[in-house]
Design a protein that fits this description.
The protein has 1115 residues and is mainly β. It has 20 helices and 75 strands. The two termini are 54 Å apart. 55% of the residues are buried.
């Protein structure tokens, strides 16, 4: 949950009491048959309702997890081949339903003795704790009622459909405020150990971002005992007694742990189980890597680049059948934009920054889908995949819902009361306080909670498209019914070869969805049942790998998944149209293995541990030669940003503009045949020259002239012969977004003495004092000296206004005149320029100027030999957030094509030609300050994407309209401001965010083709072209990432660099990181090639706030 809102209510705790509102179901049953059918409780016999009602002494104000709901466990408790169901209740007794066949169930809870006597049950897992071949039931309990006994329950299966509670006997009772548990053999001694997931009971508002991750819950000072509880626990099974080894094993047990999900899997392929914990609120998730000695290392920041903030349920599976497991975690970002603005508030950047400094990591309100890169890292791709926003979500389950051979995603959704409704928070809370002040009476809980909105939301079903993207299949698959769903589990309840669903709801009957794949689709399947060894008869931890038609489908037998729930032990695999499996590899928890070959489909296979005779050995890694090899750069200084915060001055911009360095330039400055490197410095950091000694080895060269200019922020640079003396001089452009520093934002010229020593020119270059982004030298007028184009990205402190650019004519002696107005007049409309190149586009022998720009189109300025004039082209309709442009003859027809780097498609807001994003720039309140309002288009209207509070803080005049958040959410920008104001606005737009190639067809016509999906997972900030594999075809090397967004927009960090091999026919194939050898996880600003005197090629990447990286091209 997002507790910021509940904190407001806690202030009213002395005033409140509640009664719950029942929601009338009005949704009509769909007449068309869908893939899943919701069965009626009267039909199935499963009539359980998890009724939750606020009481005077126990309610949503006193227990923040009041609406988290119950869990589901599915397993065959009597070994009759039918899967039975256990449902947990919060205020209701738990229920066990025996499967009688044909989707009919019998409630045997009372006779079985499993109702429970604790007031608040949460997670549940079926597990054979005493390895007698019968599934037992472990029930987690929580709640913080005074005197509450929240010991967990362990129901031992007696074999006659009755159970005996024995948690105390196994030392599994007293474990804290438990959300869930997972049983697995972490030490590979043959028996099942346990991870107990606890949710700290301490008020979040009391923590203040305390850096006490290492302090165990019971050791916190100044905390009342009722809040202490215990942190997460790792319990080792010592002959049937579970012993707490958490601290010795390296498991955190702090009060800042708010665990809502736990999943066990082997992340690093060493055959030892690792542990992932998803934490709610501000604590980051934990990824514990098993060290094979009884201990774990927590390594989440090494493996991931950002996480969900309010992380809830978790599942792990392989979404693209590459043999590597991916991670899906739910959060609470709504899908509909109007609902985002009605119920969400995002962290301010300063709080976000503070949390980073205290090792809480990069966390954002969004579902996250971590794509496994196969190299010990993940790339987060939820926005690209289309599964980022599903409202207040709980369980996220990855399983093949239609048996097509691809894992789909199912998400439970909804909460009993809309706790984060901003209208309730902003207006009703104030009303209560005013009423108290007037009457002196406290408001009752009933009165307050009855006024909380109730807005059930549909669950989500996403069909896997097979290209790491998903399609919302709610309508076709039958999940349009709004609900308040929590725990969920899947199983083949009717033994028809597809997976059905069981869902636990708050205040509505539990759902049982029958899967109709067997009757509707012609897809094949296979089911695996496992007979494990004596101490683990249900074979928990067994790995199955299926090989068919180029797919590698793997699954580990770990029942605890999603949210507070556990799934069927038998595995069901969809196979699509495949008629045969090439092989199935089984790896048992003790590393014994067996291989089944040429396996027929549409059958149930029982695999026995007793038949496994070989010990599985990890396959030896192929030591194939990569295309590039990273070289050591120990002697290079790291770029280090200052702490300027753009958002303090411009509150409505989406990302910083002040962190675009370091600049990078390449040239042989000392005539030794090796190309050398200049890397610019950040503010108060000197730029540096690195002399290339050959073979990619560089050494720093002391240059006091750069020390004298260290107050400048170096964001662009180029070498060229400025004074005609035959050596290469250096021009460096300064930029940034600090209004107090803008007189420093210009270009500086340094003369080379021919030996690589530089001195600053006494003549200042003309300047516009804007945020410089690019410098491109070229003798455009063919008079024998080299001229300069200097492009700027923005007007300092006024984002959105197009800055001036400079065309500087070299007078032949190293001095330059500004001839922009006279000879480059059309450049005034170049826009917010990000990059520039000189290249002959029209084949007349003279290089033209190509510029990329954000909130604009790429533009070509034709060089007549005397002046530059805008050339019309089909690029003029390609509105994007263009970061960079590179030129090359990609199709071998003799003319120059373009490669254009954009923001990519891993974005929450994806503009299209039919629904562009726009930026309206104006002084809306006539106070002399320019504001920029970004909008998204829906049904023809342009709706601001800013939150109401964000906009009214910048434009206090809007407060006079006294808008409710829900009213604001439905207003277009034209409805917020008078027509006479809107008519004065500058409007810019974006219609595509994809990075593309533009093939030059001549006559100003270009054919646009999107680059491959892996490129679109982040922004592309620079590109270089060369033939990497010596096949005669040009290949593309590109890199990017941008971290400097406001928290509500997440950040672009999924790229680790891209190597695309070309085939000469405009097809470019992305290479994995092991094959490419090109891997950079940081923010790459510039990417350039350089050579040594023997002609060997290297690539250098200038990285923001980090050391540069150098790669050698392997021959």
């Amino acid at each position: 949950m997002k507790l910021k809102y509940i904190t407001v209510f806690l202030l009213l705790m002395g005033l409140v009491s509640c009664k719950d509102k029942e929601e009338n179901q009005t949704e009509e049953e769909k007449k068309t048959e869908t893939l899943f059918t919701l069965l009626e409780p009267e039909e199935t016999g499963v009539t359980f309702i998890n009724k939750v009602a606020n009481k005077k002494n126990f309610n949503i104000f006193k227990y923040r997890n009041f609406y988290n709901g119950g869990g589901v466990a599915i397993g065959d408790i009597n070994n009759d081949g039918l899967q039975d169901i256990y449902l947990t209740g919060n205020m209701e007794p738990n229920r066990l339903y025996l499967n009688k066949g044909d989707m009919k169930f019998e409630d045997i809870s009372e006779n079985a003795g499993v109702l429970g006597n604790k007031p608040w049950s949460t997670g549940v897992v079926m597990v054979d704790i005493n390895h007698d071949g019968l599934l037992d039931i472990y029930v987690c309990n929580a709640g913080n009622m005074e005197g509450n006994n929240h010991d967990n329950d362990l129901y031992i299966n007696n074999g006659d459909l009755t159970f005996s509670e024995k948690a105390e006997e196994y030392n599994l009772a007293k474990t804290g405020f438990t959300t869930h548990a997972s049983f697995f053999d972490y030490d590979k001694d043959g028996d099942l150990d346990a991870y107990i997931l606890n949710n700290s009971n301490i008020p979040v508002s009391s923590l203040g971002y305390a850096e006490q991750r290492e302090v165990r819950a019971q050791d916190w000072e100044g905390v009342p005992d009722i809040f202490k509880g215990v942190g997460d626990m790792l319990l080792r099974n010592d002959n049937g007694k579970f012993v707490d080894v958490s601290e010795d094993a390296g498991i955190y047990g702090s009060l800042i742990g708010f665990g809502l999900g736990v999943l066990v899997t082997d992340f690093n392929g060493d055959l030892y189980p690792d542990i992932y914990v998803s934490n709610d609120f501000y604590e980051r998730d934990y990824l514990y890597i098993n060290q094979q000695d009884g201990t774990f290392n927590e390594e989440i920041t090494d493996w991931t680049s950002h996480l969900s903030l309010s992380a809830m349920g978790i599942d792990i599976a392989d979404i693209n059948n590459d043999g590597h497991n991916d991670i899906f975690i739910t959060d609470m970002l709504p899908e509909e934009e109007h609902r985002v603005k009605s119920v969400m508030e995002f962290e301010g950047y300063n709080i976000f920054d503070l949390k980073q400094s205290k090792d809480f990591g990069q966390q954002y309100i969004q579902n996250t889908l971590q794509l496994n890169n196969g190299n010990g890292t993940f790339s987060e791709i939820a926005y690209y995949s289309g599964i980022d926003a599903t409202d207040w979500s709980w369980a996220g389950l990855m399983f093949d819902m239609d048996n097509d051979g691809l894992k789909d995603i199912f998400i439970t959704n909804g909460i009993n009361h809309d706790l984060t409704d901003l209208d309730f928070v902003d207006f009703f809370a104030n009303e209560i306080v005013q009423k108290m002040a007037l009457t002196g009476k406290k408001e009752s809980i009933d009165s307050i909670i009855s006024k909380m909105p109730i807005k059930p939301q549909p669950n989500y079903a996403y069909k896997n498209n097979g290209d790491i993207s998903f399609k919302n299949a709610n309508k076709e698959w039958g999940f349009e019914l709004p609900s308040r769903s929590n725990g969920a589990a899947y199983a083949d309840l009717d033994n028809d070869g597809d997976l059905d669903l069981v869902i636990n709801n708050v205040n509505t009957p539990a759902f049982i969805y029958k899967n109709n794949t067997d009757s509707q689709l012609n897809n094949n399947y296979i089911q695996l049942k496992f007979k494990g060894p004596e101490t683990n008869p249900f074979a928990v931890g067994t790995l199955a790998k299926l090989y068919f038609d180029g797919n590698i489908v793997n699954q580990e037998l770990i029942p605890s998944r999603g949210f507070q729930s556990s799934i069927q032990y038998d595995m069901t695999f969809g196979l699509g149209q495949s008629n045969k499996l090439d092989s199935i590899r089984i790896v048992w928890p003790d590393n014994l293995t067996q291989k089944l070959e040429n396996v027929a489909v549409n059958q149930v296979l029982t695999v026995k541990h007793s038949n496994a005779k070989e010990t599985y050995k990890l396959p030896k890694k192929d030591t194939k030669k990569s295309f590039l090899t990273e070289l050591k750069t120990d002697v290079v200084t790291a770029h280090k940003e200052d702490n300027y915060n753009d958002f303090d001055y411009e509150g409505l911009i989406a990302h910083k503009l002040s962190q675009e360095g370091p600049s990078l330039a390449i040239a042989d400055i000392n005539g030794d045949g090796n190309e050398d490197i200049f890397i610019g410095g950040a503010k108060n950091q000197s730029g540096a020259i690195y002399i290339h000694r050959g073979n990619g080895k560089i050494v720093p060269k002391k240059s006091s002239v750069f020390d004298e200019d260290k107050e400048f922020e170096d964001v662009a640079a180029a070498f060229f012969d400025a004074d005609g003396d035959g050596d290469l001089d250096l021009v460096v452009g300064s930029g940034g977004n600090d209004v107090s520093m803008q007189r420093n934002y210009g270009a500086r010229l340094y003369f080379n003495d021919g030996r690589g020593n530089f001195s600053k020119s006494e003549n200042e270059l003309p300047s516009t004092f804007k945020n410089i982004s690019t410098i491109s030298p070229y003798d455009y007028d063919n008079d024998g000296d080299v001229d300069l184009f200097i492009g700027s990205r923005s007007v300092v402190g006024v984002y959105g206004i197009s800055p001036d650019h400079l065309l500087l004519e070299n007078m032949g002696d190293g001095t330059f005149n500004n001839v922009t107005e006279r000879l480059g007049y059309d450049l005034k409309n170049a826009g917010m320029v990000t990059d520039s190149k000189w290249e002959d586009i029209d084949g007349d022998g003279k290089k033209d100027l190509i510029v990329s720009a954000e909130w604009d189109t790429p533009k070509i300025y034709k060089n007549t030999g005397r002046r530059l004039s805008k050339m019309n082209s089909s690029l003029d309709s390609l509105y994007g957030w263009w970061n960079t442009v590179e030129t090359a003859d990609l199709d071998g027809d003799g003319d120059q094509d373009l490669i254009l780097g954009n923001q990519g498609l891993n974005l929450h807001y994806k503009p299209t030609e039919y629904a562009p994003m726009k930026m309206y720039i104006n002084d809306y309140d006539n106070n002399g300050t320019i504001e920029q309002i970004m909008t998204m288009q829906e049904n023809g209207g342009d709706y601001p994407i800013h939150q109401k509070r964000e906009l009214t803080e910048q434009l206090p005049s809007l407060k006079k309209q006294n808008l409710k958040a829900s009213d604001y959410a439905h207003r277009t920008i034209q409805q917020l401001f008078p027509k006479e104001v809107m008519d004065k606005s500058i409007v810019k737009k974006v219609e595509t965010s994809a990075s593309v190639i533009a093939i030059n067809e001549g006559g100003g016509k270009f054919t646009i083709k999107n680059l491959p999906p892996r490129v679109q997972l982040s922004c592309v900030c620079d590109i270089t072209c060369t033939d990497v594999n010596n096949d005669g075809n040009l290949d593309l090397i590109m890199a990017g990432n941008n971290y400097e967004f406001k928290p509500q927009f997440s950040r672009l960090d999924a790229s680790q660099g891209n190597l695309l091999l070309g085939d000469g026919n405009l097809n470019f194939t992305w290479q994995d990181y092991e094959t490419s050898g090109f891997k950079i996880r940081k923010e790459v600003k510039y990417l350039k090639q350089f050579k040594d005197k023997n002609g060997k090629t290297y690539v250098v990447a200038a990285i923001n706030n980090n050391k540069p990286k150098i790669f050698a091209l392997n021959e």
